[in-house]
Amino acid sequence: MDELAFVTGGNGFIGANLVRLLLRQGWRVRALVRDRTKARNLAGLDVDLVEGDLLTDDLAARMAGCRAVFHVAAHYSLFQADKEVLWRSNVLGTRSVLAAARRAQVERVVYTSSVAAIGVGGPLTDETYQSPPEKLIGAYKQSKYWAEQEAKRAVQSGQDVVIVNPAAPIGPWDSKPTPTGEIILRFLRRQMPFYLETGLNFIHVGDVAAGHLAAFERGRTGERYILGHRNLSLKQLFDELERITGIAAPQFTVPEWLPLGVAWFDEQLLAPLTGRPPAVAIDAVRMAAQTMYYDATKAVRELDLPQTPVRLALEDAVDWFLKNGYAGAAGG
C-alpha cells in the first residue's frame, strides 16, 4: 500500500495517534502543522510536515495527490472570551479544509467532530439525537455543531465526507494535555481532593484512531459515528486510577455552586485585572455538571470500532505521563 493521507491536527492528541496508525498500516502521511519545530508529537516519524494553518490559501495544493483527508485539527477553549477564535478555527477552518479537499479531488474526508456537538439527550445519547445549538453549553460546543453543519453542507453538494464524534479519549501522546488528561494528571499530582458528581464516556485514544481509519474505509457518506466505549462516573474513574497507581481516590464531592462561584470570580473579575488566563472556566463547570453518557453501538456495528478496556487506556495514559515527566515527584 502506498496511499497518501493528509492530516490536520497531526501534532495533537488524537492526531498523533492517528498518524502512527496510518504509518503502521502502510500509508504515507502529510501533516499540516503551524510550526514544524514545535511538532514534538511527530518527532522522529517519517511524515511530510507542511507548515500553515486551516485558512492557508494554498491548502488545496498541499493536498495534491492525497487519497484521504483526516481533518482532526480544532481549537479547544472553554473561556467565553475565545468565542471569535473558536468560530474562526473550528467553523471557518473546517469550511476551508473541505473546500480545499474538493478542489484537490480528494476521494474522501473524515471530519473529526465531537460528542460535544451532539449534546446530551437523556441518560444515554446516540447519533440520532441533536441538541438545539442554543442549548449547547459554551462557544466551543456550539462551534463544533456549526462545523458539523459545514460538513453536512459539503455532503449535500456532492462531497464524500464522514463525520466521527469522539467521546473522552485516554492514552499516550496527550501532550497538551486534554481536559480528560488534566483530570488524570491532577489525580497523579494529588491535587484532586474533591470532585463534582458527573460522568463521561471514555475510550482508548488508539481506538479513536482506529475509528477514523475505519470511517474512511467503511463509513457511510454523510453519517456520523460516536467513537466511544464505557460510561463511567468520575468516582468510578478515580477508583480505577487508585487500583492502578495506589494513590487514594478522592472521597468527597462539592456542590456545583462552589466551583461555579470560583470560576465566575476567576474568569469575570480576576483574569481581566491580571491579564492572565483564568484557571477555571465558567463553561467548564457548567459542562461538568452534566452527565455525558453516550452509546457507540453504531460505530461498533458498522465500523467494527475496537473496545479496549478503560483500565488499559488509563494504564497507558498514566505510563505515558509518568515517563514524560508530567506528574513530577507526586506521581511516583
Automatic annotation (TrEMBL):
Taxonomic path: Bacteria, Bacillati, Cyanobacteriota, Cyanophyceae, Gloeobacterales
Sequence ranges assigned to domain NAD-dependent epimerase/dehydratase in this UniProt record: 6-228
CDD domains from the UniProt entry: AR_FR_like_1_SDR_e
NCBIfam families xrefs: HpnA (TIGR03466)
Enzyme Commission no: 1.1.1.219
Annotated GO MF terms: aldehyde dehydrogenase (NAD+) activity; dihydroflavanol 4-reductase activity
Protein name: NAD-dependent epimerase/dehydratase
Keyword entries, A-Z: Oxidoreductase
Keyword Zinc annotated: no
Source organism of the structure: Gloeobacter kilaueensis (strain ATCC BAA-2537 / CCAP 1431/1 / ULC 316 / JS1)
Domain of life: Bacteria
GO cellular component: cytoplasm
Pfam hit, one: Epimerase
